[in-house]
Every structure is written in C-alpha cells, then in structure tokens.
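Components:
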Amino acid sequence: MASTRPVLITSLAAILMMVSLNTPAQADSRADIINYFAAQATGPANPAKGAKLYSQAFNNGKPDTPSCTTCHGKTPKQEGQTRTGKTIAPMAVSQTPDRFTDLKKVNKWFGRNCKSVIGRECTAQEKVDFLTYLSQQ
Amino acid sequence: MNKTIVVLGSIMALAIAAPLLTAQADSDDHNRGIWRGIWQVAKSSAVTDPLTQQECSECHIAYPPRLLSAEAWKGVMGNLSNHFGEDASLDANTRQQIETYLVGNASRSSAPGKLRISEQSWFIHEHQDEVSPRKFAQAKTWSNCQSCHKDAAKGLFDDDD
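Structure:
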C-alpha cells in the first residue's frame, strides 16, 4: 500500500497541470485597464460619447472601414464580421464577458482600428469613453 | 501489482480507445476514412508556426506560407500598417518572427508587385470557370477561402464543394 502515495500524487499533479493549461494566460482586470486610460484622460468617462464613437461614420480613415460597425455588430450586443468573413463576437461585455481583460490585446486593437477607421490614434479620453460604454452594454 | 495503477491504466486506455471505436462505428468505410485522414495530414500545407497561426488568423484564415513566394511575403509583412485596406500592425519583434517563418516556408513564384494569393496566375487559372456567381456572392471576396473550401484553415483546398 505504501506505493499508492506517489501514484496518487502524480495523478493529482497531472490533473492540476491540465486544469492550469485550460485557464487563459492573460487576466488583467477590466477596471484596472479602464483606470489605466482614465489616468491619462482629460475628463471623466463619458459613455454617451463612447456610443457615438462606436456607431459614427468617419471620413479620414481607410476608405473600406468608415466605422467601427463596418466589422463590429450594428449594436454592440450583435456579432460582427471581418471583411474577410470571420465572425467577431459582440463587443458588449454582457454578451462576451472576457472583453477588455488583456491590456496588450486592447492596445493592439485600438492601435490598429483607430488608424483604420479614424485615420489617427485614439486619445486616452476616447478609449475611456469607449470602454466604459461597452462595459455597460 | 498495485490496484491504483490498474484503475488509472484502464481509464486512460478507455479514454484513448473510445473515440477511435466510435469513429469506426460512424463510418461506413472506416479504413478508407482513416487512410484519407493520414493522407490529408501529410499533404496539408497548414501553418505550423504557433505565432503566425495566432496573429494571422484574427481576420481571415492564416494563409499557408507555400501559397506565396518569399518576395511576396516580404512585401506583405513590410507593409502591415496598410494591409489590403486595413491596419494590421504588429510589434517589431512579432512581425520579424512571422516574416522569417513565412519567407522560410514560401514556395511558388509570384508575379512582381502582386502580393495577393488571389491575383497569382495559378490561382486565377484554378478558379476561372469553376465558381458560380452565387458562391462568389456568398464569399464576398476571394480572400475568404473557407467560404468555399471548408477545410481551408487546415491547409486543404481540393475538396469538391
């Protein structure tokens, strides 16, 4: 019976490993990410402005992507689709609970899509407004 | 013999055998199915680099490196901020690693200045007269390979759809 122990410990370790492999690598808190941009913003968060940013059409960006909703859902609770046909999960946190929980990912996509749609970087204020709006959706 | 080992062993053996057994039961001609699977893996041209797979499959399938020439891949990777009408920028380190993989696994020659797979002459030749207007309307763009080739993400394009 003495040899049962190592076997049990090994299988426990194996199970733990499998569990940890299944958890996402990144887990920043959404509140921390919003605070990170809020610290650089010029005023308090304004979700109404975030809503406008989400649906508005711009004309200084790349011609194929005039608005966030070119690829994202018409409303944030709806799915979207890339120009190459891939489904994009809704941006609303109520629909996609792991939205905005990885700062690196958030920075990557603001970096790309602000330039594609608006033709420039977004300001910290715009980012706070946008994230606050979508967190409440 | 230790009881625990026997129990754990049987559970593992079952876990491995069960899917194989059900797969066999599902298929009328399971031998053919298994050989077809092995053949597909062998000839598939799917992306094997995890970083490229992750970063280049965000908006479309990660296109297999061997469908473009080294020159064309350099052209694509050198202009990510203006990527066929979108900004697909990456940090310098990631960009470099992906370029190295794609260029190192490139094949096919491609026409100078033509960066799309879908504008190479072999592609036009393969697709000319093969696609109904309805199929194309569904896909919207040639870049949407998997709309017509359901296993495109696995690097397979010779299905009969």
